[in-house]
Each structure stands twice: as structure tokens, then as C-alpha cells.
Design brief:
1504 residues; alpha/beta; single chain; 21% strand; seven-stranded mixed β-sheet
Length: 1504
């Protein structure tokens, strides 16, 4: 408080007029409640003080600035606060929680932690993210990096648009496959994987790793088997845990209920008696907003007005034959708390009319917190009528035409105003029917359960009467006493004492509503003083507020009070509130024996109450209990460690006429032992009778027959479960230690939410959070409950303060309760859902947390310390030898997992192409045979043909390019030439030009003009690695390569010769080159893998020929066919389809550059429709673009006449596991415009062989299987049914091409595996590449990847190439084209992409799929590991305040579905995750950018 600028001195405050002091107190209260911001507080405060302290204005502003900056906890207070401030302990309602014992314990626990202090990494947050904290309160991270460079892909400047920048292949800083071990890696050695280690992110991760090395709490052993795959640990009972040792308790009886002859037969009779005989006596006084009495209802008025209302309800609402209400119907009572008079009249009016009142809160908005559940209660009670006052009705939210809005989830209601002027006077002869009280329902009190559902506790007329009698006897009420009531009059003790017992005993209640308490916290004390009240009904909160404001009132006297009933005396913080209040007000005449805590619940009503004591008698006792004992449900007096003790006070004795026992809180109602804590059950006529309309739950709560150890019932009498936890102490005193609703059971131990709140608040928190606004609940994550703490952060709290407070709270809770907090979240002030009386709506808060709509501004997750039941990491088993595996398979009758396409030798074809060994020869032959046959059409974004090439045109252009290579480039046969062209026909011509000249073409994606710094280094690298002698390109690109921007990214002076092919000379080569043998090199295929490896493979002429022939046969391609290609033409199968196949097979290729789709999403599909294409090829990125972009445009497509029924095959070209979900979405979406779901399929290729599978035109449809994800982590395949938990849908990757053989091999033993077993896919085919092209000739890698043999088995003589992909082969029931049974190949994922964590193998895409499902605002997601920590990067497409909602959701889902703890969650803008041209995520590149701190993240959370 001291840092709030300059405070007026104590003397000055004392001299202020009383009303100013009152206004100041009110302001303080508003601030501490969180109803006003710090800024607003200061503004109003200075306005109040300015007339009295003129000199404050003149103080030098620099001094004030200094005070503002002193936020560091170490800085001394800038000025002495007034006494007034010193007396107040910063923030509302903190006394309600503060127990000096507790605070002391927490400080001690924190001090202990300080000695072994760990540096926790603080989360990184983008400054703009949370508007909540003012700029000067945010501290920039240590070395705040320069503003992001908008030219790079990684920090996409357009955070709002979700279109990602142009797709780019980005290798990290120079990792080339095949690079020699001893070669120039030294520069990379001293860094971690090529990333400088000193970057900021790495230090944080280092801190995190150090934190995680701390010893965990000893894990508790014992297992249950979870699906026989991974064993989740189950907490085993701790052998040292305390166990109850006492004898079995016996039920405790209360004193007998006295029989007083003049007690009325029903409560209504009492009203009739006083209303007719004592009409002038005051019954209820209401206060105005300032706390002054405004109206007193006499017994006469109450009787006459209730009578009028009863008559109106029964006779005037409908017609005589069709009354709206009949006796026994339920009616809602909607009255604000500050109108007790109207409520009381309505309540008694309903009782006299024999209709059942259901009092509820006044709805404030259409979607109040918990409003829907209230609607459910009204619906289930069959309420159709609501009574309210005129004033209240006017205040309800209305629609535009003035009707009351339909509240969410509420039944349709008819609203009736009960003000006197609208009621009809009853005729003289009309009398209400008042029968003696029986078991028929009198009223329904609502109660909110732990899960947030609202139930109606039905109270019978007999119970209402008996309860009144028991209260009157216990409290010794007598006629004419005055009672001050600060509680809610609609329910609980406020209703029982202030509305029922009041009338029963002809007392006078003065009702002090919540709104008055907020403006004048001392009002109830003044009322007691003024009216010489004998009884006051309060909560701890009211005691605290009175203590805060008491200095303004020197002359109040509480000597008249014989009972100060504290209704939440069962809370853990009530002891200190009562003690503090007594010590302060004893000098004002308060008697120590007057303090009477009581315990109540909606079901059991008043459970116990301390009777008003006799002066001089010893005060009741206290229990100081061990927290550890409590967590095991055992009562142990705390002796050893005073830090973890809970002090509780008794709540008096059992009610007169009642009986109490304590039963086990869970399971059947067995009686507890005397030193055991259980649920308090009460048997008497004074409790509720049922939950209205819920027979099942009613039986378990209202009709409990306790049993002894043997299991036999202890009597006939049914008990009611009170929902309170406690025990009966010495002298039959009742102690309550918590509520069932606040119980969190973590690893078998019980923790009370209120106790955890109290611990959190004992950590000095004035600067950080509002004391009254803290919620604790548990969520089920990974087979156990996990504790979540949510608090509202003050607007002026700095990042450091908050983080400091959060870390300390975690330590305090860990120390005192020995339980870890799973998640601690701070939300902006005033954003937690409120209950009608201003508390926190816990179940709604929990729902927001689980749905990801809490919008925290700070969050700390600690899964590493909490989650101790993870399965043990898998130990690698000794490998079984390949021979044994083979024998095992033979014994089990399993075939070896191999499959092959059709045999090329057996396929008859009368094709003239067969006689040409070289593709260049095929082109020359076509140029002579069919010179005008168009091979290629290139389309632009509008769908118009911008360029075509016939056989002859292509041949001629290729000749000219060969000539220019010879002339300008002075090249020799075998030189490498880089082709740098946008996708088009120019590229194809340049390729054949190179073949004509005997050069080796290398196709390279051109750099992106807007993004040179990221894309040009890749080009430069390929040029260097391929040792290119020359670059062929266009004039535009040539200028770009030599531009100043390019010079900033690479060395432009050392480019090889650059030749532009825009204007070609007419000169031709004298003769075209013909390679001596087909084994000679035809072209080099360079590509960047997803792991960031740049690899070039060598393709020979014979491989090219074999590849084209296999594709031709599989897809049945010939001259009269047309295919549409929407792919990138730079590597792999995309290049082969774009440049090679048409020349070989003679079909016409319609070329659609994928980047044109960004300008016109309809382009690809409208082309397919326009040309009636039967076969089309695309990439996943094109399919995704169409699915996302055209998802809601299907009608537009229909309107444009687009019909895809002509499509026979739509093939996705990919080098990954088929993305089944995307394919399904695509098929489903465009089914309406004729696309056959059978048409969509995928290819599979790898670096060593670009086309292993391709669906083709004949053969069975692709098959799918479901496999168990858990088995997959263990490198096993287990097929499961659809819908099985943790199942993964896999689709076959097309059919194996002719001439291709595949075998599945154990990558470690190199032995073949059996059918449906997981292993590496090995391939043998005439079109396999002949090796890597590298600078250093690394023979071992070459032999291992391209010419390797099986270690065992028949196929051991064959040379195989290793694809680097895991997969399995499964024989299906289908028939292949050959007539044999079809063997399906399923690809699971790339080996070098898998993550090895906890001894298991994870495929990133599985984790990413789970994460993407968790929240609608996750656009894309990627995972990678860094020093054994799992890092999850999510792109946020929503607003930035949702960023922190994702952290717990991501952590939960990865834990639940993959048994992994996420180490770091990074939230970034859309478009930051780099994706290459094939639509694959480049995770390693992302990792490098993250570690080099180049992502400009919105938020980075380091999970503890």
C-alpha cells in the first residue's frame, strides 16, 4: 500500500470529516474487492483528498515518478502510510482467509525453500500481447532482440492473415547428407546442432532442465496394466501413513426438543396469531443504500398483505374454471436481496396459498454464470410463474420490443408483480386453509453442486416448523427480541432465522443487505448498537469488513449482543476472524461467550450451533490438527511441524431433537472411528426431504442408514448427508474441517480447496492478486485429479511480481500440503465468472479452464512435479537375431513381409518407345513422327493457356538451348547445369537442352523475390554442392541473382556462368549428344528433407526410362490422354510427372503452377472440369488449400457448372504417411460436385526411389486399417477395430508400381520381418536412384542406403535400397491385377523424423494431430525435441488473449494421449511454421529458429 505515491499523515486523516473518512473506507473496500481499478481508485481518492491536502498538488512530479518506479520488492516504502493503512492488511476479505498461524507457517516454508532456491525460467511474452499491464510494468526479457526482420519467413509480420508465406525449402546452416565425418564440421561442433548455444532460449531451457533434475517426491510403486502395452503407475498406500486407531463412534444425540404448550401447529398459524393479535409489533425493518432504516413491516401488515397475495394467486390469475395456480404448484420468487419486505410477503403469501415458493437470484444478463443450471432447476420443478416486484421487473434485461429476454436454458415464464396496488383484497368470508404441519413440501431451496448443476432441496412444512422450534430452543429466542441479519434472506441461515424463527417468536429482524455492506461495512454494527439487538447473524467476511472500518466509529457498543452467530464458522479461516473481531470489539462491550459459530448445509439445514455461553464459564476448545493426518482422513493433534497445522474451532453441539453420526465420505455409509474424519450425517425431523425430481440422488443423500464395521445397519432411522466433513470431539463438540464439494482427492489423499486458498493467500500477495478472488478446483488428467489454482491479477502487477508470487505459492502449497499444483493461472481483474453475491462461480471457472476460454494473462504449469504416475521408460530389450525371427514366423505360419508390383518382363506392349534407350531419343523420334502433337499446356491464374509446346517446338527449343550451352557456357559433356526457372515449359525445354548437350541438369526452385534472405542460401548451397558449371535461368531471375538484396544474403561474385534463355540464337548444335551407356547419369535430383537435410540423388538414363515406363503402365498413359498436374516441378515424382512422362508416353500434360492457386482457388478444379480430365495429380498443400479455401464455396462451384464426375484418379504426390483425414475431408467436400470418393489416392516415394507406389487405374481400391498407437510406440503393429481408444487410421499408399519389389526389414538386425510387423521399407527396382551426389565420396553411406543386402533369408542376394521410412505389409482379401491376393503397403513415417522419448518411438504427426484437435484457434502445430524436452509450437489464429488458454490444453492432451510431458509450449502467429513445397512441415528448421530466438513468439511457457 505504501507505494501509492504520497500518503497523508495520520494526523491529517484523523482531522478529515467523518463522511470523507467513510467515503475513503468505501473506496478502499471497492479496490480490495476488485470492483475498481488501481487507477480509478487513485483518481477518486486524490479527488476526495484534494480540498483537504492542497500541498500534495505541488509536489515535484519527479518525486512521484520515483515512487512509481519503486516496484521492486526490495525497495523501501516511499513514505510512512497512515495508521489507517497500517491497520488494514491490503485487500478485501483477506482477514476472512488470513490466519496468523497460517501466514507464519507459509513464511517458514518459503524460507526453507529459499535455501535450496532454484532459478525457474520465466515465461517469455510478447509485449503487445496483454493490454492489461501498462507498458512500464512489463519488463522486457534479458537481451531483448531487435525488431523482427519482416523479410524472413519465420517472423511473419502479417499476424492477422492466416495465409502462410510462399512455401520454401530451407535447409539449416549447411547440413548435407553424405558429408564426410572429418570434414568441415568443426564450426558446428561447438554449437548444438549448428545453433549457437548462448542464445536466450537455450539458457531458459537449461534452467528448466536444472529444475527438472530436482529429486521428485518418491514415486509410489505398484501397477495396473493399461491395455498390456504401457503400465501406468498407481499410487500404492504409503506404509507410514497414519491410520485411524480409535473405536467405532456411536451416534451422538442432541438434547430433547422441549414441548412448549403454546407452540403453533404450523408456521402459518404463528403468522395468523401475531398478525391478528399483535398487529402493531414490528416484524422486519429494511435499510436504504446508506444503511438508514427506510421501512418497517409490522406483523399486521405482513398478515394482511400475505393474505391478499394468497387470494390473488389462487383466484385472480386465471378464470374460475381454469386457475393458473393450484395448491402444490411451484412458483419462482425473484427478488433482490435489498428488498426483504417484498420477499417476505411473497414467501408467506405462497405458504398461505399452499403453493411452493422456489426463491432464486435475480438474473442480471441473458447468460449469467450458472444461469442455465438455474433454468434447469426451474424446468425440472415445472415452474411457469415468477413473482417479482415492480422495481425488479423494470431492471430485468429486455428485448428491443420491451419483453423480458428469454434467459439461457430457462422455461417460458409468466411474470407476476406482487406490489400491493396490483393485488385484490380478499372477501371477508375468504380464509386461507391452514392445516397442522405435515410432510407435504413447503418450499424449495436451490443448491449448486461441485459440478455446477443446481438442485432443489425440498423442505416439508413439518421440517420447517421443527427446525424453527429447534433453533428457537438452541438460541433461546424470546418474544420481542431484535435480530440483525446480514445474510442472504432467500436461503440458508438468513431465511431460517430472519424469516421463519423471527415470525415463530414474534421477533424483529433488521435486514442489512450485501449492497449496504459494500458501501457502509460498519452498518450492521451500528444497527446492533442503535437497536440494542440481542442477536446478529453474520459471516466472517462481515466481521472482517467491520474491523477494517471500525476506526471511524469510536462510540458503538455491542454489549447488548448475547449471540453473534457466525454462519461460516466451519471454514479454516473462521478462527482467526472470530479472534481478531473479539480482541478489537471486546473494548466495545462484546462478550467472549457471545461468539457462536454454527455449521449449516442446504440438505441437513442447521447441523450444529454453539449455544450462547454463561458469563465466566470456560470458553470452548480448539483443535490444532496435522495437515498430513487430515489428508489421510485421520485426526492427529499436530505436535512436530507447526508449519503444516490447521486450527479449527468447534461449532457447538448437535441440534435439539437431533442425532449425529460420522460416516465414510466415499462408498457405503460405514461409521467412522472416533479419530477419523468423515461426512457428518444428521437424523432429525428438521432436515430437507429430497432433491426435487431426482429420486436416485435423493436416496443416497436423504435416506442413509449408517452401518457398523460388520456392515449391519445401526438402526431404522434414516440420516441425511450434510455435505460437511468433520468429527465429534471431546464433550460431544462438533468440529467441521471442510466441505465435500471442496474436496480434491489427489493420489488417494484428500485436500480441501479452502485450505489451499488460505495457503495461497498467506503468501504476501498485495501487489499481485485480489485476495477474495481465488479459485481452487481439480481436473482429471492422466488417471488422477490435478489441482488448478486460478486468481485474478491486479492491473498494476508487473510480470516479475506475478511470476515471483506464482513460484512462491507453488512452493508454499508443496511444503504445507505436500501436494503439487498442476496449473496456476492469473486472469485479468474482474474476469472470473461471479456468483450472484459476488463470489467466484467455481464450476463455471473450471468449465472455462477445460474449454480454453479462461484467457489467463499469466500461467505456470508444473506437470513434471505433479505427474508421478507415468509408466516406466521402456528399456531396450536384447535384439532377437534375424534367423530366429524368420524361424519364429515360419513356425507361426506367417509369411515374410514382402510385396511387388507386376513383373515388367511379362507385360506385352507393342510400343515403339521401347526401342529407344534414352529419353532424348524419344523426343527426337516424336518430333519426326507427330511434330504437331501438343505435349504441354501451361495455364495462368485466370485459367487461360499462356504457353503450349508441341513435340517439334519442344525439340527445336531444346536444340537452341543445347547450342547456347555449347557456345556461351563452353561446357563439356558431363558438366552439371543448374536450371533456375519458375514452373513452366521453359524449364522442360532447358532440361531437354541439357540432355541434347550431354550436360547433367539440376532443377532448383528459384528464390522468392520478397524473401531472399531465407530462400537464396538454399539455391546457393545446391549450386555449390552440385559443383554446377553454369546456371540457366530467365532474365528477371538473372537480375535478381546479381541484385544488391541478393548480395546481402550470399556471395554474388562467385556465381558460376549465368545464361539467360529468354532470347535464343538460331544456331543449332552440329550433332546431338548420345550417352555411351544407359547407366550414365541423366540428371540430379536435389531436395531438402523435413529434417533439414539437403540430399542430391543421381538418376541414370536407364532409371529414367524404367520410371517413365512404370508410370505409363500403372496409369495407362498414351497419346490421346490428357492429365492435369498441379505440383511443384523441382524434385521427386513431381519433377518426373511435369518434365519426363509426357515425352515418354506422348500424353498431353496440362500444367498448373501451384502458386497460381493462391490468386484463384478455383483454378485446378475448374481446369479438371473444363478439359474433362480423368487423371490429375496434386500435392497435399494444394489439397489443403482447396479444402480450407473452398469449404464453404461448394454452392459457388455448382453455380459455375464445375463437375468432377469425370475424374477417375486424383493422386496426391507425397513422401510421407497418407493424410487420411485431409483426403476424407476433400472427398466428402467435393462429393456434391461429382467427385467419386474412390478417386482420391496417394503415392509413396522417398529419396532413394521417387516412385514406389502409385494407385493407377486398375487394381483394388486403397485399403485402410486401424492400428493401436501405443503398440506403434513400441515398434509393434496391433490391428484394432474402428473406434478403439488410441487407434490410428492408416491408409495404403497406392499400389506398388510394376517392376518394384518391397520388403520390410528390422533396421537394426537387417533381417526381414513377418506380415503386419513394423520395420523399415526396403525397395528394389530398375528406377531406383544410383546413389547420393556429394562433394565427399562417402562410400559407406552409399552402400548402406542404395546397395544393401538382407542379413538372412532367400532375398539376401538381391541388392536393396533403404527408404528410411517405417511401414508394414499386410496381405488383404482383395485380388490384385495378377490374380493373386493383394499385398498392401502401409507407410507409418520417416525414421529420421521420429522422436525417441522415454525409450519409445513417437511420430511427430500423431502428437500434432492430438494438439490440433484441442482448440478451435490452433491453425497449425509442430513438435520437436531439444535435450530430451518435448517442444510444441502452435500457431494461434484467434485473438492473442487466447494464447495462454492453449498451454494447459496442449499439456493435457499430450499427457492423456501420448503419456508425455510437454517441456515447452510456444505460441506463434499463423504462417510461422515453415512448410515446404510438398506441404511437409520443416520441423528442424523451426527448431533452429526457436533456439536462435527468431520466431517472435506470442508466448513461451516453460512447464515446470
Amino acid at each position: 500500500m505504501a507505494e501509492r505515491g504520497l500518503e497523508p499523515s495520520a494526523a491529517v486523516v484523523a482531522a478529515l470529516p467523518a463522511e470523507v473518512r467513510a467515503q475513503l473506507a468505501e473506496l478502499e473496500l471497492e479496490l480490495s474487492e476488485g470492483d475498481i481499478t488501481q487507477k480509478g481508485y487513485e483518481k477518486k481518492r486524490s479527488k476526495l483528498l484534494s480540498p483537504y491536502i492542497p500541498q500534495i498538488q505541488g509536489i515535484d512530479s519527479t518525486v512521484q515518478k520515483e515512487h512509481k518506479n519503486q516496484t521492486a520488492p526490495s525497495s523501501a516504502p516511499s513514505s510512512t502510510p497512515s495508521k489507517y493503512h497500517r491497520g488494514r492488511s491490503g485487500g478485501a476479505r483477506d482477514e476472512r482467509y488470513r490466519s496468523d498461524i497460517h501466514t507464519e507457517a507459509v513464511q517458514a516454508a518459503l524460507a526453507k525453500h529459499k535455501e535450496q532456491k532454484m532459478a525457474l525460467p520465466m515465461p517469455t511474452k510478447r509485449r503487445s500481447t496483454f493490454v492489461q499491464s501498462p507498458a512500464d510494468a512489463c519488463t522486457p526479457p534479458e537481451n531483448f532482440s531487435a525488431p523482427p526482420d519482416v523479410t524472413t519467413t519465420t517472423s511473419s509480420s502479417s499476424s492477422s492473415s492466416s495465409i502462410r508465406p510462399a512455401n520454401i525449402d530451407l535447409p539449416p546452416s549447411g547440413i548435407v547428407k553424405g558429408m564426410h565425418k572429418g570434414s568441415n564440421r568443426s564450426s558446428l561442433m561447438d554449437t548444438a546442432d549448428g545453433v549457437p548455444v548462448n542464445s536466450r532460449v537455450s539458457t531458459k531451457i537449461q534452467q528448466l532442465l536444472n529444475t527438472l533434475k530436482r529429486p521428485k517426491r518418491p514415486p509410489l510403486k505398484e501397477y495396473f496394466v493399461d491395455d498390456s502395452e504401457e503400465i501406468v503407475e498407481v499410487p500404492q498406500p504409503d506404509p507410514n501413513q497414519p491410520k485411524p486407531e480409535g473405536r467405532q463412534m456411536t451416534p451422538v444425540k442432541g438434547e430433547p426438543l422441549g414441548v412448549i404448550c403454546n407452540w403453533p401447529p404450523a408456521l402459518e398459524s404463528a403468522l395468523q396469531r401475531w398478525g391478528t393479535t399483535q398487529a402493531k409489533c414490528p416484524c422486519l425493518t429494511a435499510l436504504d443504500v446508506t444503511g438508514k432504516p427506510v421501512y418497517t413491516l409490522t406483523y399486521g401488515k405482513l398478515w394482511s398483505r400475505s393474505l391478499k397475495l394468497a387470494y390473488t394467486l389462487l383466484n385472480k390469475l386465471g378464470t374460475k374454471n381454469e386457475p393458473v395456480l393450484k395448491p402444490g404448484d411451484r412458483v419462482a420468487l425473484v427478488y433482490p436481496n435489498n428488498d426483504p419486505v417484498m420477499f417476505m410477503v411473497a414467501f408467506y403469501g405462497c405458504l398461505l396459498a399452499e403453493v411452493i415458493p422456489v426463491p432464486i437470484e435475480v438474473p442480471l444478463t441473458r447468460k449469467d454464470a450458472g444461469g442455465q443450471q438455474i433454468g434447469f432447476l426451474l424446468g425440472s420443478c415445472g415452474v411457469t410463474l415468477a413473482l417479482t416486484s415492480e422495481v425488479c421487473l423494470k431492471g430485468l434485461p429486455k428485448t428491443q420490443n420491451g419483453e423480458i429476454v428469454q434467459f439461457k436454458g430457462w422455461p417460458r415464464l409468466k411474470w407476476v408483480v406482487t406490489d400491493s396496488k396490483y393485488l385484490s383484497k380478499s372477501p371477508k368470508d375468504w380464509q386461507p386453509h391452514i392445516s397442522p404441519a405435515g410432510t407435504e413440501p413447503a418450499y424449495i431451496e436451490y443448491k449448486t453442486s461441485k459440478e455446477g448443476s443446481v438442485m432443489g432441496v425440498t423442505v416439508s412444512r413439518l421440517a420447517m416448523l421443527s427446525h424453527c422450534q429447534a433453533l428457537s430452543q438452541a438460541c433461546n429466542y424470546s418474544e420481542g427480541e431484535t435480530i440483525v441479519n446480514v445474510l442472504d434472506i432467500k436461503k440458508d441461515a438468513g431465511l431460517w432465522h430472519g424469516i421463519f424463527a423471527n415470525v415463530m417468536n414474534k421477533m424483529h429482524t433488521i435486514s442489512v443487505p450485501y449492497s449496504v455492506m459494500k458501501t457502509c461495512p460498519l452498518s450492521w454494527v451500528q444497527r446492533v448498537h442503535t437497536h440494542k439487538a440481542k442477536v446478529a447473524l453474520v459471516k466472517c467476511r462481515d466481521l472482517h469488513w467491520a474491523m477494517m472500518a471500525h476506526r471511524d466509529q469510536r462510540d458503538v457498543s455491542l454489549s447488548s449482543l448475547r449471540m453473534l452467530i457466525v454462519t461460516d464458522g466451519a471454514n479454516p479461516w473462521s478462527v482467526s476472524s472470530c479472534d481478531a473481531f473479539l480482541s478489537l470489539f471486546q473494548s466495545h462491550g462484546l462478550k467472549p461467550e457471545a461468539i457462536c459459530p454454527c455449521a449449516t448445509s442446504p440438505e441437513a439445514m442447521t447441523v450444529a450451533i454453539r449455544r450462547p455461553g454463561v458469563p465466566g464459564a470456560p470458553l470452548p476448545g480448539r483443535a490444532i490438527l496435522s495437515m498430513n493426518g487430515l489428508s489421510y482422513g485421520v485426526i492427529r493433534v499436530n505436535t512436530e511441524d507447526k508449519n503444516s497445522a490447521l486450527t479449527v474451532q468447534d461449532v457447538g453441539h448437535v441440534m435439539p431433537g437431533g442425532m449425529m453420526c460420522i460416516v465414510k465420505p466415499d462408498g457405503p455409509p460405514h461409521l467412522c472411528k472416533t479419530d477419523e474424519i468423515g461426512e457428518i450425517c444428521v437424523s432429525s425431523r428438521t432436515g430437507g426431504m429430497m432433491y426435487f425430481g431426482l429420486a436416485g440422488v435423493t436416496k443416497n443423500t436423504f435416506e442413509v442408514i449408517p452401518t457398523n464395521v460388520a456392515g449391519s445397519p445401526i438402526g431404522e432411522v434414516p440420516f441425511v448427508r450434510s455435505g460437511l466433513l468433520g468429527f465429534v470431539g471431546p464433550g460431544s463438540l462438533v468440529f467441521v474441517v471442510g466441505k465435500m464439494d471442496g474436496l480434491q482427492i489427489v493420489s488417494g489423499r484428500r485436500h480441501n480447496a479452502d485450505d489451499i486458498v488460505a495457503t495461497g493467500l498467506a503468501v504476501e500477495s498485495i501487489k499481485t492478486v485480489y485476495r477474495g478472488r481465488i479459485a481452487v478446483f481439480s481436473v482429471p488428467v492422466f488417471y488422477d485429479e490435478r489441482i488448478v489454482v486460478v486468481a485474478e491479477q491486479r492491473p498494476d502487477a508487473s510480470e516479475e511480481d506475478s511470476f515471483q508470487w506464482m513460484s512462491r505459492v507453488l512452493q508454499a502449497i508443496d511444503s504445507i500440503h505436500q501436494v503439487g499444483v498442476y496449473c496456476l493461472a492469473l486472469v485479468p481483474a474482474n474476469t472470473l465468472p461471479k456468483t450472484p453475491l459476488g463470489g467466484i462461480h467455481i464450476s463455471q471457472t473450471k468449465q472455462h479452464f477445460l474449454e480454453g476460454s479462461l484467457h489467463p494473462c499469466n500461467i505456470l504449469m508444473c506437470p513434471h512435479t505433479c505427474v508421478t504416475n507415468l509408466p516406466k521408460p521402456r528399456q531396450k530389450q536384447p535384439v532377437v537375431g534375424p534367423a530366429s525371427v524368420m524361424v519364429g514366423n515360419l513356425v507361426a505360419g506367417k509369411r515374410i513381409a514382402q510385396a511387388s508390383g507386376r513383373d515388367l518382363g511379362q507385360i506385352e506392349e507393342n510400343d515403339l518407345v521401347r526401342k529407344h534407350q534414352f529419353l532424348a531419343e524419344v523426343l527426337q523420334w516424336r518430333a519426326q513422327a507427330t511434330p504437331d502433337h501438343i505435349l504441354f499446356l501451361l495455364l495462368n491464374a485466370k485459367g487461360t493457356t499462356v504457353c503450349t509446346a508441341s513435340c517439334l517446338q519442344l525439340h527445336k527449343r531444346a536444340e537452341k538451348i543445347a547450342g547456347i550451352l555449347y557456345d556461351k557456357g563452353h561446357l563439356n559433356a558431363g558438366d552439371n547445369v543448374v536450371l533456375l526457372y519458375p514452373p513452366g515449359i521453359e524449364l522442360i525445354a532447358a532440361f531437354y537442352g541439357c540432355l541434347y548437350a550431354g550436360c547433367i541438369p539440376v532443377t532448383v526452385r528459384p528464390p522468392h523475390a520478397q524473401n531472399l534472405t531465407a530462400t537464396l542460401p538454399t539455391v546457393r548451397m545446391i549450386v555449390d554442392v552440385s559443383k554446377a558449371a553454369c546456371i540457366l535461368t530467365t532474365q528477371t531471375l538473372m537480375r535478381l541473382l546479381k541484385s544488391r538484396e541478393a548480395a546481402a544474403a550470399v556471395d554474388v561474385k562467385t556465381w558460376p556462368t549465368i545464361i539467360d534463355t529468354d532470347d535464343l540464337p538460331r544456331k543449332r548444335l552440329p550433332q546431338l549428344y548420345k550417352p555411351p551407356t544407359p547407366e550414365m547419369l541423366a540428371y540430379l535430383d536435389f531436395s531438402v528433407s523435413t529434417t533439414g537435410m539437403l540430399t542430391g540423388v543421381k538418376m541414370s538414363h536407364s532409371a529414367v526410362n524404367a520410371l517413365c515406363r512404370a508410370i505409363k503402365l500403372q496409369c495407362e498413359l498414351y497419346s490421346s490422354r490428357q492429365i492435369a498436374i498441379c505440383l511443384d516441378p523441382y524434385c521427386g515424382l513431381g519433377f518426373a510427372l511435369w518434365c519426363l512422362c509426357s515425352v515418354y508416353s506422348g500424353h498431353q500434360s496440362i500444367l498448373i503452377p501451384p502458386m497460381e492457386l493462391e490468386n484463384n482457388l478455383f483454378l485446378w478444379l475448374s481446369t479438371v472440369n473444363q478439359y474433362k480430365i480423368r487423371d490429375t495429380f496434386c500435392s497435399y498443400s494444394v489439397m489443403e488449400l482447396c479444402t480450407k479455401g473452398l469449404g464453404n464455396q461448394v454452392e459457388v462451384l455448382k453455380a459455375r457448372g464445375i463437375n468432377l464426375s469425370c475424374v477417375r484418379t486424383c493422386v496426391v504426390v507425397a513422401e510421407e504417411r497418407p493424410r487420411v483425414t485431409l483426403q476424407h475431408s476433400f472427398s466428402k467436400l467435393f462429393k456434391d460436385i461429382g467427385l467419386s470418393p474412390r478417386a482420391v489416392s496417394t503415392t509413396f516415394g522417398s529419396r532413394v526411389n521417387v516412385a514406389i507406389c502409385l494407385q493407377g487405374t486398375s487394381g483394388p481400391d486403397p485399403t485402410t486399417v486401424y492400428v493401436d498407437l501405443k503398440s506403434l510406440r513400441h515398434d509393434r503393429v496391433r490391428l484394432v477395430e474402428r473406434g478403439a481408444p488410441q487407434s490410428l487410421l492408416l491408409s495404403e499408399s497406392g499400389k506398388i508400381l510394376p517392376g518394384v519389389k518391397v520388403v520390410i526389414v528390422n533396421p537394426e538386425t537387417k533381417g526381414p520381418v513377418g506380415d503386419s510387423h513394423l520395420g523399415e521399407v526396403w525397395v528394389n527396382s530398375p528406377h531406383t536412384a544410383s546413389g547420393y551426389y556429394t562433394i565427399y565420396d562417402n562410400e559407406t553411406l552409399q552402400a548402406d542406403h542404395f546397395n544393401t543386402r538382407l542379413s538372412f533369408g532367400d532375398a539376401a542376394q538381391t541388392l536393396w535400397a533403404r527408404t528410411g521410412y517405417l511401414g508394414f505389409v499386410r496381405r488383404t482379401e482383395l485380388t490384385a491385377a495378377t490374380g493373386e491376393r493383394h499385398d498392401a503397403l502401409y507407410v507409418v513415417g520417416a525414421l529420421d523424423e521420429t522422436l525417441e522419448l522415454r525409450g519409445l518411438r513417437y511420430h511427430p504427426t500423431d502428437i500434432e494431430t492430438s494438439v490440433s484437435r484441442t482448440h478451435r484457434s490452433i491453425a497449425e502445430c509442430a513438435v520437436f525435441t531439444w535435450t530430451n524436452l518435448l517442444v510444441v509450437v502452435v500457431e494461434l489464429c484467434g485473438c492473442e488473449q487466447e494464447a495462454l488458454d492453449l498451454v494447459p490444453l496442449v499439456t493435457n492432451v499430450v499427457l492423456e494421449e501420448h503419456y508425455l510431458i510437454v517441456g515447452v509450449v510456444v505460441v506463434v502467429d499463423p504462417g510461422v511454421i515453415p512448410i515446404n513445397s510438398r506441404g511437409e512441415k520443416q520441423r528442424m528448421h523451426l527448431r533452429d529458429s526457436f533456439l536462435a530466438d527468431q520466431l517472435d513468439p506470442i508466448y513461451v511457457a516453460y512447464n515446470m
